[in-house]
Each structure stands twice: as C-alpha cells, then as structure tokens.
C-alpha cells in the first residue's frame, strides 16, 4: 500500500515482554503491538504472532503478564525477542517468580501488570488478547520505556511467516 510503509517507519512504540503460563508450560516474547484500548473499564490489548510459541501457550492461559521494559533492558529484549521458545527455554538462568493467578513475573522488570484474558481477536498473522487488569506494579526503575528503535539490532527469534 502506497505510503503505509513510510507511515509505519515513523512509529517508535514501547516494547513489552508478555509471559504466559498454561499448565506446566511457560513462555514469553517481546511484543510491540500493544496498547491501552479502554478507559472505563481499563482494558489493554496485546497482539501475539501466531507463529510464536508464546501465542500457543497464551491460547490456553487465563491470565497474561505484561512487563514494561526500561530503556536499559536491551538484554531482556534480546532474550525474549531474539530467541524462539521452540528451541530454548527463555527463563533458564533468569530470575523470575510466580505472580498473581500463576503468571510468570520477571524480577528485573518492576513495572508490570497481570490481566485476565477477556477475549481474543483475530488480526491477520497476530491474535489480539484483550486483557482486564487484575493486579499491577509500577515499581522503581527506568521511567523511559524500551522502544522499537532501541531494539532495531534484534533479529526476531521466530521469523514472520512467509506471505
């Protein structure tokens, strides 16, 4: 579409790590397609790639955890965005704890929320998970979020499907 690539190239949105737990399975990925989408009640939408293991685990999860990375957390962005959970355990050697509703919370990211999956929306090669926040933490730390441009050097761990 004429002009659309140029429009999208100007966006520099915050990046998040979304973690999902279903049964004994745990997964997480770097997400750029996410936003608050309602004021009252508060709702937040995260979009997960259907090519991604996190999507498969999240499809069976009742709750997801959304972590807002700080600008200096390139290492976590690389871990969750530059590797595929189909080949590695992204949580191996990483400090994390069980959070509300059995979610996985990353110790190094003090700003997070846990949301109940209220609905799912098909959106092409991504599925939107509409989250109703259940618990949140805005702990100390970098108030400047990690942005898309901060991760420009990260090659996707699970490349997009060919179209």
Automatic annotation (TrEMBL):
Alphabetical UniProt keywords: Oxidoreductase
Organism encoding this protein: Streptomyces xanthochromogenes
Alphabetized InterPro entries for the sequence: Flavin_Rdtase-like_dom, NADH-dep_flavin_reductase, Split_barrel_FMN-bd
Name of the protein described by the UniProt record: Oxidoreductase
Domain Flavin reductase like: 8-148
Keyword Oxidoreductase: yes
One Pfam family matching this protein: Flavin_Reduct
Region: Disordered, residue numbers: 136-163
Gene3D superfamilies found in the cross-reference section: Electron Transport, Fmn-binding Protein, Chain A (2.30.110.10)
